[in-house]
Design a protein that fits this description.
Layout (H helix, E strand, L loop, with lengths): L1 H32 L13 E3 L8 E3 L19 H7 L3 E8 L7 H4 L2 E5 L4 E6 L2 E11 L4 E5 L7 E7 L3 E5 L10 E7 L6
Antiparallel strand pairs: 1-2, 3-10, 4-5, 5-6, 6-7, 7-8, 8-9, 9-10
Length: 192
């Protein structure tokens, strides 16, 4: 009987110490979580979004990428198989992501690309050609060069391919945007 009372007293002491330590830990962590992260100092912050689904602050850039001079004409002519692959259908940007703009996909999704054998390409929106540009392909480094006035496509892009799907990766010597665009090839344009 005395042993049971002794075990009960020890158990109460352990519970009391655990609760006391738990309250101290909770109180010290709260101010740390409330510290705000500093805004970047590059001066291009357009919009700071509030609390998101993951409860972190996000900095949003909504400007188009800066214009770059794409040296498409300095590249050798792409191989016959590359020209045939690129011009075999219509390329649709299914989605796009960028670390600083979560809405970047809206700038790509309505557009379709039609590459041609003569190293020109059309940007098509709602089945109408909106612009024609030039393209080149660096076979050795797997880099696609697109020269046009559209600020979102005008750049050089590292390419990853899987079948008739290309991922354009904005991480080259002249493309510092970090944008990634997934293009899927279709045989024809969608009906309006």
């Amino acid at each position: 009987m005395k042993v049971n009372i002794l075990i009960g007293i020890v158990l109460l002491a352990v519970v009391y110490m655990t609760c006391k330590n738990f309250k101290k830990t909770e109180a010290t962590e709260a101010p740390v979580a409330a510290v705000a992260t500093p805004a970047p100092s590059n001066g291009k912050v357009l919009k700071i979004m509030g609390e998101g689904a993951d409860s972190t602050n996000r900095i949003q850039f909504s400007e188009p990428p800066p214009h770059v001079d794409v040296p498409w004409d300095k590249m050798p002519r792409p191989s016959t198989s590359r020209r045939a692959f690129m011009s075999s259908g219509y390329w649709n940007p299914v989605t796009a992501i960028q670390p600083t703009d979560t809405t970047i996909y809206k700038q790509f999704r309505p557009k379709w690309l039609k590459f041609k054998d003569d190293q020109t390409f059309d940007i098509i929106i709602k089945n109408k050609v909106m612009e024609t540009g030039h393209w080149a392909f660096d076979e050795e480094n797997f880099v696609l060069y697109l020269s046009c006035t559209d600020p979102y496509f005008n750049n050089s892009w590292n390419i990853k391919e899987r079948g008739f799907r290309m991922i354009l990766i904005g991480n080259t010597a002249i493309n510092l945007t970090g944008i990634q665009v997934r293009l899927d090839m279709q045989n024809q344009l969608p009906a309006n």
